[in-house]
Design brief:
The structure is a homodimer. By secondary structure, the first copy, chain A, is an alpha/beta fold. Chain A has helices at 3-24, 43-57, 74-82, 97-100, 103-122, 134-139, 145-154, 171-176, and strands at residues 33-37, 61-65, 87-91, 128-132, 161-165, 179-187. In chain A, strands 3-2-4-5-1-6 form a 6-stranded parallel beta sheet, sandwiched between helices. The interface between A and B is large, with 85 and 85 residues. Strand 6 of chain A pairs antiparallel with strand 6 (179-187) of chain B. Chains A, B: Its EC number is 2.5.1.17. Chains A, B: One of its GO terms (molecular function) is corrinoid adenosyltransferase activity. Chains A, B: One of its GO terms (biological process) is porphyrin-containing compound biosynthetic process. Chains A, B: Required for both de novo synthesis of the corrin ring for the assimilation of exogenous corrinoids. Participates in the adenosylation of a variety of incomplete and complete corrinoids.
């Protein structure tokens, strides 16, 4: 065995020992409040990746889309065509808020979405709820942030996971969350004139 | 209509006009080199979210997992049980590198994974290839970064998307990529003693 290999193997042994020790302290299971925010790509994709995991494990789950909706996406297509039994799929918005240009309609759609969201979260059968792009509705105050955070902290069943996506997550939500990932845009091909493409963006 | 609503609607009209103008410049379609890196959660989930979109649209795709493998994950289970026709799934590694503690075995596994990856990328039928956790193999120099970047830049078919995930993406890869998202860890429940849970982490 050469020296590089030997040094590497010893280093990995130390890492494994430290990791095993650390993992012993990770014993709790609980439903998480998760936030995917930031300008980078992947916030919704990562939410749908978890939905896929739930479907695989037979964990009933639900999606409420807040401001996407009037166009066909891969995630909607697949969930509606293949997995209606395993994942409930709701659309409350009619597009991004600059598409409707009608605040009252946006507010009504967001409130409707939030009512559905609460029902799904309270449903003891459902184990993960994805509130896709809810941060946009919160940012424009279509929904009251205090009401949403208060509901999540006081009424969400202990083992239910809720994932909230969208840019500009409010500080109150980040404070309340168990897991927060900021998706930082390092490079995006929109800047070079590349359009949104099937399989990648929708 | 009250003043808030009117101001909002006018603002959204301006946003929509600016957006429509911008979208006119987004005309190109091309296969992207995408990198998901950083310490935050969601890098692989977001990759699998795109796999789900490809499956929905009937775009044949492939996954090569570099350093996960010896345990069952939701993504592996679902793809192997339901979508073997639509998504090819390969595992090259036997766990994280600190699990094997054997550099030579890790190098052999990574090289094997890279050979499979090249075949999948070159296959004209395949439209998106997810190289999950390949950045770990690159970081420890199990694979040569110059070889990988050179292959992606010179041999990847023009319309094929490739997504490379894992922490510590090498600068050469970031330089070569079209789309890079840094997943920044703002909060993670591991810190509070919560263990990895089904549906969320695997």
């Amino acid at each position: 065995m050469d020296e590089l290999t030997q040094r590497h193997n010893e280093k990995m042994k130390r890492i494994k020992a430290a990791r095993d020790e650390m993992m012993k302290t990770k014993t709790e299971e609980k439903g998480l409040i998760m936030v995917h925010t930031g300008k980078g790509k992947g916030k919704s994709s990562a939410g749908f990746g978890m939905i896929m995991r739930c479907i695989a494990w037979g964990m009933p789950c639900a999606v409420v889309q807040f401001v996407k909706g009037n166009w066909e996406t891969g995630e909607k297509k697949l969930l509606r065509e293949k997995f209606t039994e395993k994942c409930r799929f709701f659309v409350s918005g009619e597009g991004f808020t600059w598409e409707t240009q009608d605040r009252e309609r946006d507010v009504a759609a967001a409130r409707n979405g939030w009512e559905i969201a609460k029902q799904q979260i309270l449903d003891p059968e459902i184990q993960l709820v994805l509130l896709d792009e809810i941060n946009i509705a919160l940012r424009y105050d279509y929904l009251d942030i205090d009401e949403v955070v208060d509901f999540l902290l006081t009424q969400k069943p202990h083992m239910t996971h809720v994932c909230l996506t969208g840019r500009n997550a409010k500080p109150e939500l980040i404070e309340a969350a168990d897991l927060v990932t900021e998706f930082e845009l390092v490079k995006h091909p929109f800047r070079d004139g590349v359009k949104a493409q099937r399989g990648v963006e929708f």
